[in-house]
Every structure is written in C-alpha cells, then in structure tokens.
Amino acid sequence: MRRCFLAALLLTATAVQANDCVIDLKADDAMKFDRSEVTVAASCKTVEIKLTHTGKLPVAAMGHNVVIAAPADLQPIAQDGQKAGAAANYVAAGDKRAIAHTPLVGGGASTSASFPGSALKAGGDYVFFCSFPGHWAIMKGKLVVK
Prior knowledge:
With 146 residues, the protein is an alpha/beta fold. It has a single domain, classed as Immunoglobulin-like (Sandwich), CATH 2.60.40.420. 23% of the residues lie in helices and 27% in strands. It has helices spanning 2-19, 59-62, 74-84, and strands at residues 22-27, 37-40, 46-53, 67-69, 100-101, 110-116, 126-129, 140-145. It has a five-stranded mixed sheet, with no helix packed on it. A three-stranded mixed sheet has the order 1-3-6, with no helix packed on it. The protein is globular and about 40 Å long. Residues 4-17 have low confidence and may be disordered.
C-alpha cells in the first residue's frame, strides 16, 4: 500500500512539473486569448507553447500566433513582423527579441512550438502576444516564471 502511494505521489509530481512547462492557450475570432497570465517553472528544460484557435475565421482574416518576448520588445517585434508578412508568421526572420513563437493558425486549427527553458529567468518580465497586424495591441498577457 505504501509503495503504491509513493508511486502515485511521484507520478502526480511529475505530471504537475510537466504541466508547469506548457503554455496552453486558446484564441478566438474576438481577438482574445482565454488567459491573461500564464506561469511556467524556471526549472523547465523545454517550454512548450500550445495554441488552439477556437474561432471559425480563416488564417488570412483572423490568424493567431503566440510570441514570447520582453514587454519592451512587443511593439517593435510586431511592427517588424508586419513588414515580414504572413509567410513569416508576422515575426521577422532571425528576430532575436522574440524568445519563441508559434506559426499562425486560423479557426479550428492548433499549433505548437518549443523552446529552451533556459531562455527564461525566474522573476523575469515576459509577455505573450499575437503578432498578427492589429492584434498585438490587445491580444497579450503576462508570462510569469517561478
């Protein structure tokens, strides 16, 4: 009985730790993420971003992505991304200010991306946002690293 309890406890701890390494967001046709704040563990070797577009509009009309960056870099990344265009997922190629980003998706689609957890520091100031033109001003949230 005691072994079963310890095994269950270890599995639960592993599952909780794994969930602390995933940024799971949903976005809709109203230009909103379902969360305004997400938390990841500073101990994550890899952080995964999962995005599900729950709307119905196509990517050309209402595409969404998720970009991770420092708050001061949000607007410059979005402006340079607009110049880069949809083929670049509205993130300029090689933009080092973007810690990570997912591809664009339209209604009913999902996407994901992973990046090294070492790119984030505990207590650092980070934001997640959609870089689709016009979305970044309102479609954003805080990323907390503990």
